[in-house]
Write a structure and sequence with these properties.
Length: 223
């Protein structure tokens, strides 16, 4: 009696004991095929000898389960990574400007309709931007590692940040930051529902609007 090992596509190794002394007889008998939805079975018989080889096929990627950012832009995870990075960079720039005091600070006070003094406004701005850097970094890590809670913290902060800009009558910044909160809320919901995960991101959910070659859809079109 001899043994034959077969390796399927899933990396599983199975050993089958064969009573025949000639492996060539077994190879010639591989004529019958039985196909199912999940696997392919080859039945081979030569007298008392029988070898069964099972090969597992991966299912075709499913359709996208998570909506794109604003319906047609990149996926929500990529959007979070982008806006968090932009927010951190501009916040660092803002802390430097406010800490040094400048005409820019006077302009912000004027936009606040002189309700707040320069000292109050500068301290509040530095604290606001410093906290913003912290929460944006938390959101950045959460988006990168597919963790929903850090993404939620970033979303909550952007909503608070929007309210603070409204209080200081900085309407352009309030609108922009409110838009920043949207992909974080969408990503949090997708991660909690399981429609977007580390396992299916590259297969079905990844999408980029910056050009060809950076999304699954683009790769499918090239084939």
């Amino acid at each position: 009696m001899s043994s034959v090992r077969s390796i399927n596509q899933a990396g599983e190794v199975s050993t089958h004991f064969v009573q025949s002394k000639k492996l060539s007889d077994i190879e010639e008998a591989r004529t019958e095929e039985t196909r199912t939805e999940d696997d392919l079975t080859l039945d081979n018989s030569t007298g008392k000898s029988r070898v069964t080889v099972r090969v597992r096929f991966e299912k075709e990627p499913e359709e996208r389960q998570t909506a794109l950012c604003f319906g047609s832009c990149c996926d929500v995870r990529k959007a979070c990574l982008i806006v968090d990075t932009i927010y951190v960079l501009f916040s660092i720039w803002g802390v430097v400007r406010y800490s040094q005091g400048s005409a820019y600070l006077n302009l912000m006070v004027e936009q606040a309709q002189n309700v707040y003094s320069i000292d109050v406004y500068s301290i509040a701005a530095i604290v606001q931007l410093s906290l913003g850097i912290l929460f944006a970094l938390v959101g950045l890590v959460g988006s990168y590692t597919f963790q929903s809670i850090p993404v939620l913290w970033a979303a909550i902060w952007y909503i608070i940040d929007t309210i603070m800009y409204v209080v200081f009558f900085n309407w352009p910044a309030a609108i922009i930051i409110a838009l920043y909160s949207y992909p974080h809320v969408a990503l949090f919901v997708a991660l909690r529902k399981g429609t977007l995960s580390k396992e299916n991101y590259e297969q079905t959910e990844q999408h980029c609007c910056c050009g060809s070659g950076c999304s699954r859809d683009d790769d499918d079109d090239d084939e």
